Amino acid sequence: MDSLNGKKIVLGVTGGIAAYKAVEIASRLRKAGAEVHVVMTREATEFVTELTFREITGQPVTVDMWAKVTNFNVEHIALANLADIMLIAPATANIIAKTAAGIADDMLTTTVLATKAPLILAPAMNTNMYENPVTQKNIAELKSRGVQIIEPASGHLACGVEGKGRLPDPAEIVRFVMDFAAGEQRLTGKKIIVTAAGTIEPLDPVRFLGNRSTGKMGYAIAAEAAKQGAEVLLVSGPSSLPDPAGVRTIRIQTALEMQAAVQEAYAAADAVIMSAAVADYRPKTVAKEKIKKSDDELVLHLERNPDILYGLGQHKNRQILVGFAAETCNVEEYAKKKLVKKNLDFIVANDVSASDAGFAVDNNRVQIYTRDGGCEKYPLMSKQELAGIILNKIAELMS
Ligand SMILES: Cc1cc2nc3c(=O)[nH]c(=O)nc-3n(C[C@H](O)[C@H](O)[C@H](O)COP(=O)(O)O)c2cc1C
What we know:
Distance between the termini: 16 Å
Low-confidence stretches: none
Strand content: 15-25%
Mean pLDDT: 91
CATH architecture of the largest domain: 3-Layer(aba) Sandwich
Number of helices: 13
Strand order of the largest sheet: 12-11-8-13-16-17-19-20
CATH superfamily of the largest domain: CoaB-like
Largest sheet: 8 strands, mixed
Radius of gyration: 24 Å
CATH class of the largest domain: Alpha Beta
CATH topology of the largest domain: Rossmann fold
Bound molecules: flavin mononucleotide
């Protein structure tokens, strides 16, 4: 998509030396067809004037939350509601920290907190500020919530040092927004179920059988699908990750609970991505009281849990079904068998014995096997990137 026709973009401008570049960003967004509403921090007005943005965008510019409201459209919640996309460029270390912490002490931060629109930040600052662990922690926190971060460029900074922290060229930033908007629409109106994390199967009131899945892969897929416009239901086993923005999240404990939640939504779903590590077995009986230790061996009797994905495959009509195969050996053989047996459209297979990929880490290295016998091998990549690849394949199959 080469245009932002009719898109309402709220452009936040903060008090960095690159604020002057936001003028060209606003201009390019407008030329691409967007309606641009600029919100400046007070500090940003030290670098560029409101008047410049008003002339460039043809819209009122907001700075002060307490200014007399002459146009209802600039009232603080109105801008949050109106935005299709919210872009902050340049984003200072300060706005990044405030956004990560949920602070709303001026018009821009209040709008950020109030909006449900996807948020894109373009950090720009001195290299030391950028590399400071607290800034990196804030950026990681925002990414985990589905905020898009446009990586700063490296080079000569205004403060005289060489390093990372420069705002990329306005043309690149606008290209990012266009790509994002194009991707966002691919799954609009599609209903997607994602399962994530491991199920836990109780033994007694204090103990359970579980596995090492943290949910990172499934949460990344759910967040990305929501960003691409899908209506997403995330059915998650216990995970310390926060609910992804724009996703309906149901938290369950056991395989039976996961099955019930998925089955309820299945008939209306367009695609199901089963990335959860569902326990194959559960204790046959759950002790009512805590099991006491004795000097004898303890024998546990386990019974089979339902194979949720197999069940979905049996009742498949138009749904696209995607499975995951996390194996420690013979990955290809197991994955191909699973693909056929469960009636899947494709399966994402990985060797979870590798220490740099798979469970509990941010990266994954996978092969994708398809129904037509195809196999695509991917290098080590972030789970977010992989989520994009999986959803691209789903979007292609849907079209
Ligand atoms: C000349 C000058 C340039 C600055 N450039 C930056 C910058 O590029 N990035 C940044 O994060 N902060 C920069 N700062 C510091 C911010 O202006 C300061 O942290 C301010 O509180 C940011 O407010 P805001 O985030 O509400 O706009 C600069 C300050 C001055 C005086």
